[in-house]
Amino acid sequence: MRKIILAVALCLALISDNALAANFSKIGSLGPGNRIHGMDISRWQHPYGAAIDFKKMYDAGVRFVLIKGSDTIDSSDAQARKYLAADRSAAQAAGIFTGFYHFATLPDTSKTTILIEDAKAQAQKVVWRLASLGGYTNQDLPIALDIENNCVRGTLANCKRYTSKKFVTLWTQTFLDEVASKTNRLPFVYSYPQFLENAMARTKSLSKYPLWIATYGKDPAVPTNQPGLKKVGCYAHAWSKANCTPDWQIWQYTSCGIGSKYGVPSARVDLNVFSGDENQFAQFTLGTWQPTPKDKLPINETSTVQIVQQNIGNTLIPSNFVVDVSRPDGSPVVTGTIDFKSADTTMTNGKQDVVRSSSGRWTLTISNLQAGSYVGYIEYIDETGTHAPSTVPIAFTVEQSATPSPSPITKPTPTKKPAPAPVDTCKNQIRN
C-alpha cells in the first residue's frame, strides 16, 4: 500500500512539474530589469472599436495581459463585457497569459449587513463573468480586485461622503474570501500604496492575497528599484515588510506606455512587471477551475421589488424613493436599474435620476412633476437578462408649491479667462 501511495505521489509531482515546464516555455523573454513584462487593458485601448494586435504585443516582449473584465457600475460593466472574451482568446492564441480585473465602487451605507451583501454580490458578478469564459485554464492568472477609491457619494472631484477604513477593509476581505472560496485560487489586490495605508487596515488576513501595486516614476529596468516606497519612512499597510518594501507580485510602473509599440490602437497603455522569475510566475498559473451549472449566469432569474423609503415633494421639491430589488434567496440582484412609470399616459414621468447606493439598492429622484395624483409603478429592468424584470405599484400625490415672487436678475459681464496651459500627465512617468 505504501508503495502505491508513493507511486501516486510521484506521478502527481511529475504532472505538476510537467505543467510548470509547459508554462516555462510560454513565458520566454524577459522585460525591463530582467523582469517578466506585462500590461493591463480596458475599453480605452479600443478607440472607435479598433482591435488589438496581440501577436505584435507578444513580439514586443509582453507575456501577460490583465483585461478589465467587470465593473460595479452597469454602464462601465457593459463596456468591459464588450471586449473581454475576444481579447482573452486572442491574447492566449498569441501565447500571452491573461487575467482579468474587477473595478470596485463601494456601497453608500452605514450598515454592516448591507456592506457584506454588496461585497458578496460584486464577487458573484466576477464569478459569473469568469464562468462565462469557461473558468480558469493554465494560461490564466487569478482575478484581480481593483480597489483604489473610498468615495461612496458624489464624484472624485467633489466627494460628499467617504466610507471608513473599517468598512473598506471588511468589504475587501469579504470580496476576496468569496472569490477565493468559489474559484479555488487567491485573487490579486490592485491599489496604490497611499490608499492601502490610508483607507485599509493592516491585517494578516489581507496580506495572504497577492498584491498588484501601482507606483509610477521609477524605472523597473534598474534591478534595485522597488515600488511603493516613501522618500522618507514607510507606508504601513497589510503588505509592508520590515525593510519598508511591499510584498508585491505585479508592479504597474507606468500609465504612459507607447501603445503602437505593443500593437495597441490607443496612444497610451499601462505597463507592468512581475516580481519573480519564470518558476514563480508559473506558480500563479497553476490550478484550473471549471464552473458547474450553479456557477453560471442565470437567465431571467425571478426578482422582487420593494420600496423601503419614500419622501414625496411638490412641484418644486423632488420626490425621492429608496428601492430594494432581491433575488429568490433574498440576496440583492447583481445588475440592473429602476425607473418610475405613470399608469396615466397624460401625466409626465418627470425628470428621473437613479443613484446606486449598493448592490440591489437604488435611490430614485423624480423632479419636474406636475401637481396631481400619480398611480403607476416602479419597475426594475436588467439589460443583461440575468434577472427578470419586475414591478411594484405606487400611488402618491404631488402638491402645488407656493409660487415665489420673481426677482430681477442682473447678469454680470463675464470676464474672459485665459485658456489653461496643457498638462503633461506623463511628465514624471516612464515612456516605454
Structural write-up:
It is built from eight helices and 17 strands. By secondary structure, it is an alpha/beta fold. The chain folds into two domains: 25-295, TIM Barrel; 304-398, Immunoglobulin-like. The strands form four sheets. It has an eight-stranded mixed barrel, surrounded by four helices. Strands 11-12-15-14 form a four-stranded antiparallel beta sheet. A three-stranded antiparallel beta sheet has the order 13-16-17, with no helix packed on it. Strand 3 (97-103), helix 4 and strand 4 form a beta-alpha-beta unit. Helix 4 (112-132) runs parallel beside helix 5. It starts with a helix and ends in a 34-residue tail after the last strand. Residues 1-17 have low confidence and may be disordered.
How many β-strand stretches?
A: 17
Which spans of ≥5 residues are poorly predicted at pLDDT below 50? 1-17
For the largest beta-sheet, the strand count, sense and barrel status come to:
8 strands, mixed, barrel
How many domains is the backbone divided into?
A: 2
Q: What is the name of the CATH architecture of the largest domain?
A: Alpha-Beta Barrel
Spatial extent as radius of gyration: 25 Å
Strand order of the largest sheet: 1-2-3-4-7-8-9-10
Q: What fraction strand?
A: 25-35%
Roughly what percent helix? 25-40%
The CATH homologous superfamily of the largest domain is termed: Glycosidases
Which class of secondary structure composition applies to the elements?
Answer: alpha/beta
Shape: globular
Q: N- to C-terminal separation?
A: 58 Å
CATH class of the largest domain: Alpha Beta
Q: What is the fold named in CATH at topology level of the largest domain?
A: TIM Barrel
Provide mean pLDDT, rounded. Answer: 90
Order of helices and strands: HEHEHEHEEEHEHHEEEHEEEEEEE
